[in-house]
Write a structure and sequence with these properties.
It contains 3 helices and no strands. With 99 residues, it is an all-alpha fold. It has one domain: Orthogonal Bundle (Helix Hairpins), CATH 1.10.287.3510. Helix 1 packs antiparallel against helix 2 and helix 2 runs antiparallel to helix 3. The longest helix is centred in the last third of the chain and has 31 residues. The chain starts with a helix and ends in a 13-residue tail after the last helix.
Amino acid sequence: MGHQFVLLISACIFCIGAVGFLIRKNPLVMFMSVELMLNSVNFLLVGYSHFLKSMDGQIFALMIMTVAAAEVVVGLAIILTIFRTRHDMDVDHINTLKG
């Protein structure tokens, strides 16, 4: 029961994040959906690490959280810069970063 529960919850959270990323046009919501998908993978890694009595999954999840924190800083800076220059948050119209 434990393995299936962890896999089911992680898959549900990942699907919610994927649907949120594909359907929404707001870059902030898309960004939060990507973070939700990363957190579902972290949940899966930590859950299976607990079941297998190994620390490898927890260490890898910690590395993913570190990369996600750096992604948050860069992503929010880009989103804020685009919003300040264009006052528009529609993903279909974002081409200001092209050279």
